[in-house]
TrEMBL record:
Gene3D superfamilies: Vaccinia Virus protein VP39 (3.40.50.150)
Domain Methyltransferase type: 58-108
SUPFAM superfamilies: S-adenosyl-L-methionine-dependent methyltransferases
Protein species of origin: Mycobacterium dioxanotrophicus
GO biological process, one term: methylation
Protein's recorded name: SAM-dependent methyltransferase
Length: 212
C-alpha cells in the first residue's frame, strides 16, 4: 500500500509521511518531479549533482527520473532504477531510461558504473544505510564514485518506522532512516568507501564517496 500511496502522490494527491513518534511532514513531490514547481534550492541541487556526474551514471531510487534525464541531456549514458511503476512511466515519458526493479536485484553494468547517485534521502532506504552504501560500492567500477545526499538537519543515523498517509488512505509501516552528514565518514569507512569531498547546496549537501 505505501507503494500505491507513493504513486498517488506522484499523480497529484496530497500525501504525507508519519513517523512512529507521531510527527508528520508532506512528501516533497515537487522536489522529486523537478521543473518549474521545484524550489530554487532544489533546482540548484539538481544542477549541481548532475554536473558532478562523470561517465556512465546509475541513479538508485530515481523516482520520476529528473536526475537521469538531466544526466542524459549532458550527453552521458545513464540509467535509473525504481520500484514504482508510476515513477518509471513518468521517467520514461520524459525520455529518461529507467528500470522498474529493486536496487538490490541484479542490475546491468554491476561493477562498471562511473557514478552512482543516492539523492532525496535514498541512502536511508529500508532503514539500513550500511546496506545501501555497500550496494552502491558493489555497482561502482574502479575509480568510480558515489554521490550521496546526506541530511544537514539530522545527526547520526535515525532509523524509524514510517508510513504514508492521505485523506483517503493509510499505508503500512515500513523502515526508513534519516542519515546526518556528521556520520558520513564513519558510514563510508564501514563499507570500504571514503568521503573525498562535500558540496553544500543551500540547505542540502552532496558527499562524494570513493573506494578506500
Amino acid at each position: 500500500m505505501h507503494g500505491q500511496l507513493y504513486d498517488q502522490a506522484l499523480d497529484g494527491e496530497q500525501c504525507w509521511i508519519r513517523r512512529g513518534d507521531g510527527s508528520m511532514r508532506h512528501l516533497p513531490v515537487y522536489s522529486w518531479l523537478g521543473g518549474a514547481r521545484a524550489s530554487r534550492c532544489d533546482s540548484r541541487f539538481d544542477e549541481t549533482i548532475v554536473n558532478l556526474c562523470s561517465g556512465p551514471t546509475l541513479d538508485l531510487g530515481c523516482g520520476p527520473g529528473r536526475l537521469v534525464a538531466g544526466v542524459v541531456r549532458r550527453g552521458l549514458p545513464a540509467l535509473g532504477v525504481d520500484l514504482s511503476r508510476t515513477a518509471v512511466e513518468l521517467a520514461r515519458s520524459s525520455g529518461a531510461p529507467v528500470l522498474c526493479r529493486d536496487l538490490f536485484a541484479p542490475l546491468p553494468g554491476t561493477g562498471r558504473w562511473h557514478t552512482v547517485l543516492l539523492a532525496d534521502g535514498n541512502v536511508g532506504l529500508g532503514g539500513d544505510p550500511w546496506r545501501v552504501l555497500q550496494r552502491a560500492g558493489e555497482l561502482l567500477g574502479r575509480g568510480g564514485r558515489c554521490l550521496v545526499e546526506f541530511d544537514t538537519a539530522a545527526e547520526g543515523v535515525d532509523a524509524a518506522w514510517v508510513r504514508l498517509e492521505s485523506v483517503r488512505s493509510i499505508g503500512p509501516w515500513f523502515r526508513w532512516a534519516t542519515v546526518g552528514l556528521d556520520c558520513a565518514a564513519r558510514l563510508a569507512g564501514d563499507v570500504g568507501l571514503t568521503v573525498t569531498a562535500t558540496h553544500p547546496v543551500g540547505t542540502r549537501v552532496i558527499a562524494a564517496l570513493e573506494a578506500a
